[in-house]
Design goal:
- The complex is a heterodimer.
- By secondary structure, chain A is of the alpha/beta class.
- Chain A has one domain: Alpha-Beta Barrel (TIM Barrel), CATH 3.20.20.70.
- Chain A is 48% helix and 12% strand.
- Chain A has 14 helices and eight strands.
- The longest helix of chain A is centred in the last third of the chain and has 22 residues.
- In chain A, 59% of the residues are buried.
- Chain B is an alpha/beta fold.
- In chain B, β5, α5 and β6 form a beta-alpha-beta unit.
- The chains are: A alpha/beta, B alpha/beta.
- Chain B: It holds the Pfam family PALP.
- Chain B: It catalyses: (1S,2R)-1-C-(indol-3-yl)glycerol 3-phosphate + L-serine = D-glyceraldehyde 3-phosphate + L-tryptophan + H2O.
Chain lengths: 300, 420
């Protein structure tokens, strides 16, 4: 299964390879509203994002730092639901493939309720049977290319891996600074699309520097074929350059973009322009780090 | 596809039936493996005499064993034998120390240098702070801002024992948010820090580890009831929030299928969930919850149909949690444990009744079990054991407020305040 998953026709993998070095951006869907999210996604797409992660808000985001927690709260307060999220994605037309990032409970609960099932004569299925297939099916139908679940380690991922295989979606796993040995192998045998390299221990959030852990993680991953993208703390073009120089195939930026959305509050035009500019800066940084277009990379 | 091989503990599984598991960020997985290894070596196999030291410290510092006391006037009132397991007499005033001391000691054996813990009402926080002071470990407690404001004496107790208290402002500022924030700290500092989780919740191996430390309650009770009555009880009652005193009281009796085990949950003011507001006016997770993943485990939860976790409620802060230990979910699902609930009012009456009839002021948490006993004693057989998980001195302010606004049959007359 390993070979299939790392080399098959993955839109995500193709997007990274064709646009190498790639920029992957994250924003929370519904922050501050789903209408705004549409504008912002299009702005990121124009600015140079090669993949776009959309957060589907969950009330207990244990992997997020304060910035994205606040974004998730805003999105929930705005009434963002899974169905609203999928309808947003239904209507998006971007060049960059889209991924959904959310917590496992959101996948488990998606699907017809007990009452709906009963009315459809499907009541014999136990109410509490955990099933991620309806979510994955709907994600595929909406045109999403992949899924990231930060509270789902490889040990618990078999049902989701199977559902993703069935619907042709990539399943991205996070590789932490603490991931080594057998656990690393296990993750790399399950991952598809790209390996999400967590730059440092802790939660998401913009930081001022690039950690040593990044270099160590990239060294551990050298022998694996699947593209590697580094996230957690990347906020500037110079970070992007440094990470790509260190051997990554892409950089992932979230909190720095969410900050822009938070600063602008309501009213999406200035925020969209700022997001587009930020994406362009990060993409330039990444290209500089990869020795593309820019002859002399600036040192941070 | 083959199932990836996983570490399993000695009784075989990371799960209890379909509940449990390890739903945590990748960065924490190696720490859970390390903890599982320590659990097997030190706790299950008593390596380096860990369990001997634990028991000795629970005796000398913690005050174990606790008595199993015949409640004379309750026995008379209900016309059957009622015994109380007096966990309120453990040092600190609740069963919480059983777990906190065990885990802080384990952290020491594991070579960790720092303790973090969450607390809701402050009972687990104060127990952890006491244990950390006793064992000379630096300790930081995360506590919701709302809880800090309504539990000031407990905050001060933690500070007196040398623990730092970190306020959590996210969400409603209660237990659920405090757990989120402690997990975030642990994900950042995992290499030298141990997370002393406060109940039988969280990812494997925490539910088993905490059960192992708490099951001393039922082990003692089983021996004591035999000694005193020559037989085993017909039923055991314990309140259930996260469920650590519950599983502690029940575990030793689970194989005795004739003994009824009743987990008494907080019915609050209603058993319905208000989906629009995202609020459950109760904490009756075992009675009304649906399956999902929260704080690292598959278990029963109070959640909206979309999967958002709702705010729970109980007059007793220690039961106020939207999840429950996965092992209890499993025992309920298999029919071994019966989930029941009583409303706030019945718990408050239970609080006053035990204070008045037996001279024991129980925690509001434990008062739920006493409230259930009052209403259902006829169905509980001739010999009933009630776990008094903690003492109620901490609850006096709440009880005063709540009693003023209600007409409680068991409340004392306090017109003395008006006589100048």
């Amino acid at each position: 299964m390993t070979d299939e998953q790392t080399t098959a026709d993955s839109e995500i993998e193709a997007a990274i390879r064709e646009n190498h070095p790639a920029l992957i951006t994250y924003i929370t869907a519904g922050d501050p509203s789903l209408e705004d999210t549409t504008e912002y996604v299009e702005a990121l797409d124009r600015g140079g994002a090669d993949l776009i992660e959309l957060g589907l808000p969950f009330s207990e985001p244990i992997a997020e730092g304060p910035t994205i927690q606040a974004a998730i709260n805003r999105a929930l307060e705005a009434g963002t639901t899974p169905e609203g999220f999928f309808e947003l994605v239904d209507d998006l037309e971007t060049e960059a493939p889209l991924l959904v990032m959310t917590y496992y409970n959101m996948l488990l609960q998606y699907g017809p309720s007990e009452a709906q099932r009963a009315s459809e004569g499907d009541a014999e299925k136990p109410r509490n049977e955990a099933d991620v297939r309806p979510f994955v099916e709907r994600a595929a139908e909406a045109g999403l290319s992949g899924i990231i679940v930060p509270d789902l380690p490889a040990e618990e991922a078999d049902p989701l891996r199977e559902a993703c295989d069935e619907h042709g979606l990539d399943l991205v796993f996070i590789v932490a600074p603490t991931t080594e040995g057998e656990r690393l192998e296990r993750i790399m045998s399950q991952v598809s699309g790209f390996a999400y390299v967590q730059a440092r221990l802790g939660t998401t959030g913009a930081r001022a520097d690039v950690s040593n852990a990044t270099h160590d993680s990239l060294t551990r991953l050298e022998e694996y074929e699947v593209p590697k993208a580094v996230g957690f703390g990347v906020s500037e073009g110079d970070h992007a350059a440094e990470i790509i120089e260190a051997g990554a195939d892409g950089v992932i930026v979230g909190s720095a973009l969410v900050d822009i959305i938070a600063e602008h509050g309501e009213g999406n035009a200035p925020a969209a322009a700022a997001l587009e500019a930020k994406a362009a800066e990060l993409k330039r940084g990444a290209r500089r780090g990869g020795g593309v277009d820019v002859p002399e990379p600036e040192q941070p | 596809m083959s199932t990836p091989e996983r570490n399993r503990d000695r009784d075989g599984e990371a799960t209890f039936g379909e509940y449990g598991g390890q739903y945590v960020p990748e960065a924490l997985m190696p720490a859970l493996q390390e903890l599982e290894d320590a659990y097997e070596r030190y706790v299950l196999e008593n390596e380096d005499g860990f369990m001997d030291e634990f028991r000795e410290r629970m005796r000398d510092f913690g005050g174990r064993p606790t008595p199993l006391q015949r409640a004379d006037r309750l026995s008379e009132r209900y016309d059957r034998e009622v015994y109380l397991k007096r966990e309120d007499l453990v040092h600190g005033g609740a069963h919480k120390l059983n777990n906190a001391l065990g885990q802080v000691l384990l952290a020491k054996y594991m070579g960790k240098e720092r303790i973090v813990a969450e607390t809701g009402a402050g009972q687990h926080g104060t127990a952890t702070a006491m244990a950390a002071a006793h064992l000379d470990m630096p300790c930081e407690i995360y506590m919701g801002r709302t809880d800090i404001n309504r539990q000031r004496p407990n905050v001060y107790r933690m500070r007196m024992n040398g623990a730092a208290v970190n306020p959590v402002t996210a969400g409603s500022g209660t237990l659920k948010e405090a757990i989120n924030e402690t997990m975030r700290d642990w994900a950042t500092t995992v290499e030298r820090t141990h997370y002393v989780i406060g109940s039988i919740v969280g990812p494997h191996p925490f539910p088993k580890l905490v059960r192992e430390f708490q099951s001393v309650i039922g082990r003692e009770a089983r021996e004591q009831i035999r000694e005193k009555t020559g037989r085993l009880p017909d039923s055991v009652l314990a309140c259930a929030g996260g469920g650590s005193n519950t599983i502690g009281a029940f575990h030793e009796f689970v194989p005795d299928e004739d003994i009824a085990l009743h987990a008494v949950e907080a019915g609050g003011s209603s058993l319905e969930i208000d989906e629009a507001e995202g609020v459950a006016p109760n904490s009756a997770t075992l009675s009304t919850g649906t399956d999902g993943v929260l704080h690292g485990a598959m278990t029963k939860l109070l959640q909206s149909t979309d999967g958002q976790i709702v705010e729970s409620h109980s007059v007793s802060a220690g039961l106020d949690y939207a999840g429950v230990g996965p092992e209890l979910s499993h025992l309920v699902e298999t029919g071994r444990v019966t989930p029941v609930s009583v409303p706030d009012e019945a718990a408050l009456n239970g609080f006053h009744r035990l204070s008045n009839l037996e001279g024991i002021i129980p925690a509001l948490e434990s008062s739920h079990a006493l409230g259930y006993l009052e209403e259902n004693y006829e169905d509980l057989g001739d010999l009933v054991v009630v776990n008094v998980s903690g003492r109620g001195d901490k609850d006096l302010e709440t009880v005063l407020e709540e009693t003023e606004t209600r007409d409680l049959e068991a409340a004392p007359d306090v017109e003395v305040f008006d006589r100048q």
